[in-house]
Amino acid sequence: MNHNPQAWGRPRDDVYGAYNSQYLPQHHGGPSAHPTTHTQSPIVTGTSVIAIKYSTGVVIAADNLASYGSLARFTDVKRLKPFNRKAVVGFGGDVSDMQYLDRLLSSLDVQENYSHNNDDPEDTKALMSAKNLHTYLAKVMYKRRSDFNPLWNSLLICGLDEKNKPFLATADLLGTTYSAPTLATGFGAHLAQPLLRKAVPDEEASQKLDKETAVEVVRECMKVLFYRDARSMNEYSIAVVDEKGVELKEKEKLENQSWAFADQIRGYGTQTV
Amino acid sequence: MFRNNYDNDSVTFSPQGRIFQVEYAQEAVKQGSVVVGIVSKTHAVLAALKRNAEELSSYQKKIIPIDTHFGIALAGLASDARVLSNFMKQQSLASRLTYDRPIFLSEITSRIGDRAQTNTQQYGKRPYGVGLLIAGVDAKGPHLFEFQPSGVTQEMIACGIGARSQMARTYLERNLDEFEGSSREELIKHALCALKDSLSQDKELTIDNTSLGVGGIDENFKMYEGQDIAGWLETAFESKAEGEEGGEGMEVDS
C-alpha cells in the first residue's frame, strides 16, 4: 500500500504498467486535444433547392430526401420552412443544422409576435419581410463560420420585401449572400439554373412571368434534377409566396417522367455492353 | 425629527403604498423646460423650449435625433437623457444591422421602459430623472410615445411634459380633433402654439430658444433650429388669432 489515497483500488503501475490514457479526452489525462471536428462536416444532407421570382411572388421547391452519404436515408424530410405569411426558407446541406436553424426561426417568430402584436391579421405592413429574414440568417451564418463552427447549409430565402415586391436571395455556410431572379443551390446550381435562366434571363423577364408558368418551370427543373442528381428523389415540396400568403405543398410527385434518354448515355445506370 | 423615512431608496414602499424616489424623479421632469409632441396621419412633430443657464451661455439641447426615422425630446435631467439616447441609438443600429430594418417605435419605447423600470426595483439604483417624448415613423406609420421615469410608457396623439406643460396640454386637448387630418405645416403650427401657450408672461419663442423635430412618411426625422424656424415662428401665430379663444398673449413674435 502506498500513501497516495487516489491510487488506492486502482491497478498498480509497478505491476501492470502506467495506464494508457491515449483514448481519453485531455481533461482526463489524454494527449493534447485536437479541436472538435464532428460538427465541421455535414452528415445527413439535403440536396438542391431551387427558386424563381415571378411578377407578384416567388416559387420555391426542394425534394423530401435526406441522404446519409449516398444512402437515401430519410424520405419524408420537409426542407421548405414557412416563416410567416411573407417568407419561406429553403434548406440545402446538413439536416441537423437545418433543424437548429428551424428552432432559431421559431423563437424569432415568437419574439416577433410578442413584441408588436398585430391586431389585424390582414395587416402585413409590420410583419418581418423576407429581406429582413435574409439579413438575419446571413448574419447567423457568418457568425458561425467566424467561430470556425459553420452551419453547413445553403439557404434560399424567398418571399416579399417590405414593399411587398418579390424577394429572393441566398446565404451559405460562409455567410456569402447574393440575389438573382432565379437561384439554385447545390447540384441545382449546375443542372437547374440554366433551365431557370432560359425562362427568366433577367429581372425584367421575371416581372413579366406569371405564376402558372413559374410553377411549371420549377416542376420541370425538379424532374431534370431527379433524372441526373443521384442524391434526389421523386417526391418534393413546392411553395408559392405572394400577397395572398404562403401556399405550401409537401407531398408532390414528379409526373410524366420519360427515361427514354437514359439508355443512350454511356455511364448512366447499368451498362450491359 | 425625521419627516419621511420612506424616501431613502426606490425599493421601499411607504405605508400609503407610495414609492417616494419615483415620485421625486417625476418632479425632476416637471422642473425641465416644456416639450410638446403631436402626430397626424402622416407626420410626427416635436417642439421644445430650450433654456440657457445664463445670458452668455448656450442653450441646453432638448431634441435628439436617434435614427433616420425618429427622435426624442426630453424634459428633466439632460445627463440621464444622454444615457437613454445612447442606448436607443445602439438599439436602433442593432436592428438595422441584424435585420436591415428600422426599429419599431413601440419596440424601442418598451425597451427603455423596461430599463427604467428595473431601476425602480433594485436596491442601490435610482430612477431616471427624465421624461421623454419619442416621435417618428415606422412601418406602422407615425407614432408618438411618452416615457416617464417610473418606466410607464404610453402611446399618445398629442402630449406635453415639463414645466408649465399643463397650459400646453390644455391647448392640445382643445384642438385634439384637428391633429389627425393636419398637414405637415399645420401640425408644426399647432406644436408651436401649444408651446407658446405654456410660456410665462415675460417670455416668448425666439429662433434661439425653440427647437423643432419633424418626421413623416417617406421623410427622415429632421431637427430644425435657429434661422430654419424663423419662418414658422413668424407665421404660426397669425392665423390662430381667429380661433374661438386663442388666448390673450397673441402678439406676433419678432
TrEMBL record, chain A:
Swiss-Prot/TrEMBL GO biological process terms: proteolysis involved in protein catabolic process
Highest rank taxon of the organism: Eukaryota
Location(s) in or outside the cell: Cytoplasm; Nucleus
SUPFAM superfamilies: N-terminal nucleophile aminohydrolases (Ntn hydrolases)
Pfam families: Proteasome
InterPro entries linked: Ntn_hydrolases_N (IPR029055), Proteasome_beta4 (IPR016295), Proteasome_bsu_CS (IPR016050), Proteasome_sua/b (IPR001353), Proteasome_suB-type (IPR023333)
GO cellular component: cytoplasm; nucleus; proteasome core complex, beta-subunit complex
Annotated segments matching region Disordered: 20-41
Role: Non-catalytic component of the proteasome.
Protein family (similarity comment): Belongs to the peptidase T1B family.
Name of the protein described by the UniProt record: Proteasome subunit beta
UniProt source species: Oleoguttula mirabilis
Automatic annotation (TrEMBL), chain B:
SUPFAM superfamilies per record: N-terminal nucleophile aminohydrolases (Ntn hydrolases) (SSF56235)
One GO cellular component, as annotated: cytoplasm
This protein's name: Proteasome subunit alpha type
Domain Proteasome alpha-type subunits, first and last residues per copy: 6-28
Location(s) in or outside the cell: Cytoplasm; Nucleus
Keyword Cytoplasm listed: yes
Quaternary structure annotation from Swiss-Prot or TrEMBL: The 26S proteasome consists of a 20S proteasome core and two 19S regulatory subunits.
Species annotation: Oleoguttula mirabilis
Keyword field: Cytoplasm, Nucleus, Proteasome
One Gene Ontology biological process: ubiquitin-dependent protein catabolic process
Annotated InterPro entries: Ntn_hydrolases_N, Proteasome_alpha, Proteasome_alpha-type, Proteasome_alpha1, Proteasome_asu_N, Proteasome_sua/b
Family designation: Belongs to the peptidase T1A family.
SMART domains: Proteasome_A_N
Main location as per UniProt: cytoplasm
